C-alpha cells in the first residue's frame, strides 16, 4: 500500500484505547477513466474545444484550461465584475456562467479587443493595480456599443456592478467620456 491508498489503519484511540478496524480505501490520483463532456466555443476568434464537467464555470475553463489570466476571480457571486467577458456580444460574469451554457457561443476577453477605450484608459492612468480593469473594460465596451453617447449617470449605472479597490472609478469614467467625445 502506498501513501493515500490506506486511509485508515488499525489504530487505538488515544483517549479510550479501543481498536478501530483496518480499512483500505483506494483513492485514484487521476480521474482519466471518467468521461468528461466536450464543449466548443469561439474564444477571441479561435475555435476552442475543452473537456469539463457540466458544473465547471467559464472562469475555471478560461484560466485553468486555456491560460487566459486577464479574466479574474474576485468574488464568485457576480458582485465585483473582475470576471466579466463578452458572450455573444453581451457582458457575462464568467464566475457563474457554466461552460455548458457557453456551448457554441462567441467569447471575447480583453485579449481579443482593439477598442479606443483601451488607449483612453491608459491616457487617463485609470489602471492603478489593474485587477478590475479587464472586466470594467468589457462592460464599458458593451455599454458603448449599445449606447454610443451615454451621459455620466448612465456610465455610472453601467459600472455599478464593478468594484475598484484602488478608487480609480473617476479616472475610468473620464476615459469612457474621452472615447464618447471622440465619437
Q: Span from first to last CA? A: 70 Å
Kindly estimate the percentage of residues that lie in beta strands according to DSSP. Answer: 5-15%
Q: Assign the CATH class of the largest domain.
A: Alpha Beta
Q: Could you give the count of β-strands?
A: 7
Q: Which class best fits the helix and strand makeup?
A: alpha+beta
Shape: elongated
CATH architectural type of the largest domain: Roll
- Computed over alpha carbons, the radius of gyration is 23 Å
Provide the domain count: 2
Count of DSSP-assigned helices: 5
Order of secondary-structure elements: EEEEHEEEHHHH
The CATH homology group name of the largest domain: Beta-grasp domain
Characterization of the model:
This protein is an alpha+beta fold. The protein folds into two domains: 38-111, Ubiquitin-like (UB roll) (Roll); 114-182, Orthogonal Bundle (DNA polymerase, domain 1). It has five helices and seven strands. The protein has helices spanning 58-65, 116-123, 133-146, 152-158, 169-182; strands spanning 11-12, 19-20, 38-43, 46-51, 84-87, 90-93, 106-108. The strands form two sheets. Strands 4-3-7-5-6 form a five-stranded mixed β-sheet, with helices on both faces.
